[in-house]
């Protein structure tokens, strides 16, 4: 499971909310208590998706407080329902791993699909793996290829390798093409 501001660190905060931006800076400076009890909580209560996610992750991971799984799950669900693709991915990962919730590959698949449909690369890769393995959904190599290719186009190196392998061997609706395979 990732830390509270993994999303904010990997991608620039798209929030114009100065309180959320201050909270991210304070979190990065290690001031967890003020970040959790003040800035993220207040910004989350005002509706900032990023703050909802980060507040939830801090609660779940016990950063700046003792872990509070139920409250963390409540705020994570609020961010998920606000259509934040990264939060949908994290929600799917929780169900896939059985962390903080019961393991449920079909529920993981549902959340990975929501995030992947918004172009979330990690969700695209997770979804491709589920289709390839038949975990949480029916095994479908053609759908696996579709999602591997999307993740590959998004820059995921594992997906690029697997996409290249599909082109190298052909089949499953993919024409063998060694030149394309080499490009991946």
* Rg of Cα set: 18 Å
Give the total of domains: 2
- Characterize the largest beta sheet: strand count, sense, and whether it forms a barrel: none
So how many helices? 11
Average residue-wise pLDDT: 88
Provide the helix percentage.
55-70%
Beta fraction: under 5%
Could you spell the SSE succession in H and E letters?
A: HHHHHHHHHHH
Helix- and strand-based class? mainly alpha
- For the termini, the CA-CA separation is 29 Å
Low-confidence parts: 3-13
Number of strands: 0
Molecular structure report:
- Helix 4 (49-61) packs antiparallel against helix 5.
- The protein folds into two domains: 1-82, no CATH class; 108-184, Alpha Horseshoe (Serine Threonine Protein Phosphatase 5, Tetratricopeptide repeat), CATH 1.25.40.
- It has helices at 6-10, 18-28, 32-46, 49-61, 69-81, 85-97, 105-116, 121-133, 141-153, 157-169, 178-183.
- It is mainly α and 184 residues long.
Q: What does the secondary structure layout of this molecule look like, with pairings?
A:
Elements: H1 6-10, H2 18-28, H3 32-46, H4 49-61, H5 69-81, H6 85-97, H7 105-116, H8 121-133, H9 141-153, H10 157-169, H11 178-183
Helix pairs in contact: 2-3, 3-4, 4-5, 5-6, 6-7, 7-8, 8-9, 9-10
């Amino acid at each position: 499971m990732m830390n509270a501001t993994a999303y904010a660190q990997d991608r620039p905060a798209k929030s114009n909310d100065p309180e959320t931006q201050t909270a991210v800076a304070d979190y990065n400076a290690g001031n967890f208590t003020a970040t959790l009890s003040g800035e993220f909580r207040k910004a989350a209560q005002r509706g900032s998706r990023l703050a909802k996610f980060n507040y939830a992750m801090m609660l779940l991971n016990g950063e700046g407080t003792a872990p509070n799984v139920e409250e963390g799950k409540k705020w994570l669900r609020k961010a998920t329902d606000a259509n934040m693709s990264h939060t949908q991915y994290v929600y799917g990962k929780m169900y896939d791993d059985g962390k903080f919730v019961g393991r449920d590959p079909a529920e993981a698949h549902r959340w990975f699909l929501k995030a992947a449909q918004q172009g979330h690369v990690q969700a695209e890769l997770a979804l491709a793996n589920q289709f390839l393995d038949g975990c949480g959904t029916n095994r479908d190599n053609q759908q696996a290829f579709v999602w591997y290719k999307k993740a590959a186009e998004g820059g995921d190196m594992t997906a690029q390798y697997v996409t290249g392998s599909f082109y190298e061997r052909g089949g499953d609706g993919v024409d063998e093409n060694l030149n394309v395979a080499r490009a991946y």
